[in-house]
Design goal:
binds manganese (II) ion; three-stranded mixed β-sheet; alpha+beta; binds zinc ion; 5 helices
Length: about 130
């Protein structure tokens, strides 16, 4: 019985974390998710947030976006889509660009591989940062 309770609590935590992640399109850090989840579950620890974000990523419910030097960001919208990353402020924006499936076919054909998915990132200076200059 105690075991079952623990399981329900874990499932509940994961659900809250996923809801927080899906409530935004800003691609937040684990720390931001932590601050938001705490409003609903004050006793949650940062370690729990990290563990659940990892699980959600492994389950294919979320994406982990890592851009080298900065902290990982998370995306609760796991369907394939492209991002623009501002090199100035670090903002990550979803692009409306349709996913180029034809790219997978031509890459697959050219190297004789079966392509399962692809990622494409665009980098530059966002319009807010450009306006500041
Ligand atoms: Zn910017
Ligand atoms: Mn995204």
């Amino acid at each position: 019985m105690a075991e079952k309770k623990g399981f329900i609590r874990k499932t509940k935590q994961r659900e809250v974390i996923l809801n927080v992640l899906r409530s935004t399109r800003t691609h937040p850090t684990a720390d931001w998710v932590y601050q938001e989840v705490r409003k609903e579950m004050p006793n949650v620890s940062l370690g729990t947030i990290y563990r659940n974000l990892k699980t959600l990523t492994e389950m294919g419910e979320a994406l982990e976006l890592s851009y080298g030097s900065t902290y990982s960001r998370f995306d609760g919208h796991a369907d394939n889509h492209y991002h623009f990353v501002c090199e100035e402020c670090g903002d990550v924006t979803d692009l409306e660009l349709p996913v180029q499936d034809s790219l997978e076919n031509s890459v697959g054909d050219s190297i004789g591989a079966e392509i399962t998915h692809h990622r494409l990132e665009f980098y530059g200076i966002c319009n807010h940062c450009r306006a500041k200059k």
